[in-house]
Specification:
The two termini are 12 Å apart. Helix 4 links the parallel strand 3 and strand 4. Strands 2-1-3-4-5 form a five-stranded parallel sheet, sandwiched between helices. The chain has six helices and five strands; from the N terminus they run βαβααβαβαβα. The chain is an alpha/beta fold. 40% of the residues lie in helices and 14% in strands.
């Protein structure tokens, strides 16, 4: 029997009251599958600049890369900014993919949950992030897809998920992701 997969959780929104952070916390708190979730914080990563790589890579980059390399999989929560992912999340993808030929993302099973107060659930960001997975060689879970709209109304004043239908969906999503990881992760 394999040990619980270690999953790096990346949240694309940096704001204090982030709906994506609340949704990520809701999924993690379900403890619905044999997964070991660890948040990989991206807000402190200096912008990727190859010149810095040649001189001295910032410790924040090196620490982030080690965390991603040690994970068995990656789970992304993203809002949609201008029909794409937030700049901080794109920067994290870039930092983790360098130096060239040493990508921390290589072969990591991945999944995306996009969360928005709007009706379409950040569909554009979800799909755009999946395009990056192709180049990064991250096998993306195809089903169930997760576009969660109307999220502003799903949490109480303490940030706890109150929508039972969404809680059930997150549980099913986590179970499917656990199966996807076992099927695709490097052994």
């Amino acid at each position: 029997m394999l040990t619980a997969a270690k999953v790096a959780v990346l949240v694309g929104s940096l704001r204090k009251e982030s709906l994506n952070r609340k949704m990520a916390n809701a999924l993690v708190s379900l403890n619905a599958s044999p997964l070991n979730f660890q948040f990989a914080e991206i807000g402190n990563l200096p912008l990727y600049n190859e010149d810095l790589e040649k001189q001295y890579a910032p410790e924040e980059w090196l620490s982030f890369r080690r965390q991603i390399k040690s994970a068995d999989a990656a789970l992304f929560f993203t809002p949609e900014y201008n029909r794409s992912v937030p700049g901080a999340l794109k920067n994290a993808l870039d930092v983790g993919s360098r130096p060239y030929g040493s990508s921390s993302w290589d072969g990591k099973p991945a999944a995306v949950i996009s969360v928005s107060p709007g009706a379409i659930g950040a569909f554009g960001a979800n799909q755009h992030l999946r395009q990056s997975f192709v180049f990064l060689n991250m096998p993306a879970m195809q089903q169930p897809e997760a576009y969660i709209g109307g999220a502003k109304e799903m949490f109480d004043a303490e940030g706890k998920l109150t929508n039972e239908t969404t809680r059930e969906f997150l549980n099913k999503f986590a179970q499917a992701f656990s199966s996807w990881i076992e099927m695709t992760r490097k052994r």
